[in-house]
Amino acid sequence: MIKKFILTGFVCLFSASTYAQRGLKISLNSKKETEVSPIVKEKVEEYASKINTIIQEEKKLMEAELLVLQAKNLDKMEFDKQKAQVADRYSEKIDQRIEELGFDLDNVIQKQVKYSLLNSDVTSNEEIKAKLLKKFRPARSVTGYFSYGIMTLTNDLPDNELDKNIGYANNLEFGLKLHYQFSRTSPWALTSGLGFAWRTLRTDNDMVFAKNADNGIYLDTYSGSLDKNKLRTGYIMVPLGIQYNFSKVKDAGMDIKYRSCYEGFKIGASVYGGVQMSTNNIIKGNDAELRNRGNYQVNPYVYGAQFTVSYDNISVFVKRDFSNYFKDSYFKNDKALVFGISIGFE
């Protein structure tokens, strides 16, 4: 009974598909059509065509017999009774002729399963194994990511003027991530990539970053009403790390095992380094708006370490700079600490 339902579904699907293509004359293949094995499609369409031929042949014979029956001018009750008997007889005949076609549904289903797994019609075990080895090879790819984090500055010295007046600070980053799994079943993977980060410092208490005659920087009180103040620095970042994946090893068949490094729970640790692109001091108040790109004594180089916990393509992380945020003696020993979330595009 289950096979009959499956078979009926196949026939309906491909009959509808064939009719639609003939009626609309559209040659573009839909995504659903490409998910069906060409061999399976050909066999089912051929079978559906044969069934349609049988039905049409028997339908013509039945209609001819019903015309003869109608010519006898029987009363309605007797006519309906004999009409039902004729329909039952032809229905049994159609079923018998379809049965004699010998359609091997199990074989068709097996071919479709193979195609769904491998996206190819293969026949030998060697071809199947080669396709499986290619499909479930170690994960080695370059994907995109986007991250956002809340940033603060920490040090082991007494609070300086910036520490006492720091406001909301953040780190925005996007780029490409390299993922290199060591083997098909290995939980370990090397991670690297290239990113672009923008770090933004804001100050409270109407304080702004200013320069003196020697190009040094300090915090100064804004004379008017302050609406916006940002010291934004862009960096090109390069991370290098390692990741461990807790997902289980899966069986692809043909004695081939694999572990997906893109799914499940993962932890990772990395170091990173970066070089400064530019620094912008943005001040907006009731008097005027200032946008000044220049040297605000922000460290031209940055390096540190990051710890990440991930599930699928969502990660939370904490990163800590080992380098000072500012160079020389400006706001000594302040280092960035960032807590954030990252989304991968795998």
| First and last CA, distance | 42 Å
Q: Give the CA-based shape.
A: elongated
The number of helical segments is 7
- Total strand count, please? 13
- The oligomeric state is single chain
Structure overview:
- The structure is a single chain.
- This protein has 346 residues and is an alpha+beta fold.
- The protein is 34% helix and 39% strand.
- It is built from 7 helices and 13 strands.
- The protein has helices at residues 2-24, 31-34, 38-71, 76-100, 105-118, 125-135, 161-165; strands spanning 140-154, 169-181, 188-201, 207-211, 217-221, 226-245, 250-253, 256-258, 265-285, 289-293, 301-311, 314-321, 335-345.
- The strands form 3 sheets. It has an 8-stranded antiparallel barrel. A two-stranded antiparallel sheet has the order 4-5.
- The longest helix has 34 residues, at 38-71.
- The protein is elongated and about 115 Å long.
- The protein starts with a helix and ends with a strand.
- The relative contact order is 0.11.
Record the SSE blueprint.
Layout: H1 2-24, H2 31-34, H3 38-71, H4 76-100, H5 105-118, H6 125-135, E1 140-154, H7 161-165, E2 169-181, E3 188-201, E4 207-211, E5 217-221, E6 226-245, E7 250-253, E8 256-258, E9 265-285, E10 289-293, E11 301-311, E12 314-321, E13 335-345
Antiparallel strand pairs: 1-2, 1-13, 2-3, 3-6, 4-5, 6-9, 7-8, 9-10, 9-11, 11-12, 12-13
Helix pairs in contact: 1-3, 3-4, 3-5
